[in-house]
Every structure is written in structure tokens, then in C-alpha cells.
Amino acid sequence: MRIRQLEIMLEDCAGFPDPDARSEQYATPAVVAARFLHEADRRGDIRGMRVVDLGCGTGILACGAALLGAGEVIGIDRDKDALAVARKNAEKLGAEVTFLEADISRSGAEIPPADTVIMNPPFGAQRAHADRPFIDAGLASAEVVWGIFNSGSHSFLESYVRRRATIDTVISATFPIRRTFAHHTRDVMPIPVDFIRLVRTEEGEQ
């Protein structure tokens, strides 16, 4: 499937019914989701793989992975209302995705093993280090983790995952955040982001 075709299909995904500012529930734009997933697929991390989407929200990344031919896709989020929308989005798109309710930020949360983890974690604008539980859960689940992070996060990530994983891909992109919350002052705010691929090391598997 071509990237533009995937983008058009994902534009039909509904967003958060009642987005929570503290949880940074921004809808991932279809143009960003399509490019992110194609970059992962180009490296052999989507098609035929067992893919887990951590903090899946309304399911745009999970649905996109399924449409690209993932062998199995599991979306995980703690928000029941978002998961209800995600299930409707998957049904509308004909995407086979299993959605599970779990709070990734809580220790002991059961995250199923995967070949690839994909995620668009909180950027940490409202709560510092809000992305760390996602990184930890992702590396515990899969050998390969793809994430959308604030531009310039490379040094932090490299330090945070030292001895557990290496960064082998950093791709610059723009994430247009639409006016969602009261503190937003512009209709669309373009945020520079990086698509980052983490590969778990042997030491990280222990």
C-alpha cells in the first residue's frame, strides 16, 4: 500500500471524544501516522510481524499497522472511551486489531510480547518524563521499538536506554497539533519531532 493511500484511509479515524490535557491526548494526524508506519515497514518491522501499539489512544497507529499487513496487532490504552473509539475505527477500516485496557505507567502492567512496538507517547509537556514508562514497557515487550518523540530527544534517549538498547534510526518530521485545549493559542501548531527506532541489546534482554 502506498503511503498516500494509507494516509487517506487513516483520515477516516475518529479522534478522542473528550481529550485529557494532562495525559497529552493529541490525535496523531493521518499524515504523520502514515509516514511513521511506512518508515517502520520499510525496515521490515510491520508486515507479518506481531505489533503492539502502546498508548494506542483511538487506534490510528494500530489500524495503520494492520492495514500494512502486520501478522497481529494489539493496541493498549488505559482510557476506556478512547478504546471504544479505537474499536469503531478498526471496524470502519476493516483492520483486525485486538484492543486491551491497561495502564502502562503502573508497574506490573502486563504487556504482551511482540516483534515490534510502536508508540506515540506523551511528549512530557504536562508531566516531566511521562514517556519513560512507555520506553520501559516497549523494551520489555519487543526487540524493536519505534516511537514518535520531541525533536532533540536523541541524547536523552541514548542516555536513558544505555546498556538496554541502541538507537539506529532517527528521522525528522513535523507533527501538526490542532487546537485542542484551552492553553492552545493557534489553530495548528507544527511541532518538530523525530521518528526513532530502538533496538534492544542482549544486555537489555536479561
UniProtKB/TrEMBL annotation:
<dbReference type="InterPro" id="IPR025714">
    <property type="entry name" value="Methyltranfer_dom"/>
</dbReference>
<dbReference type="GO" id="GO:0016740">
    <property type="term" value="F:transferase activity"/>
</dbReference>
<dbReference type="Pfam" id="PF13847">
    <property type="entry name" value="Methyltransf_31"/>
</dbReference>
<protein>
    <submittedName>
        <fullName>METTL5 family protein</fullName>
    </submittedName>
</protein>
<dbReference type="InterPro" id="IPR029063">
    <property type="entry name" value="SAM-dependent_MTases_sf"/>
</dbReference>
<feature type="domain" description="Methyltransferase">
    <location>
        <begin position="48"/>
        <end position="120"/>
    </location>
</feature>
<dbReference type="InterPro" id="IPR051720">
    <property type="entry name" value="rRNA_MeTrfase/Polyamine_Synth"/>
</dbReference>
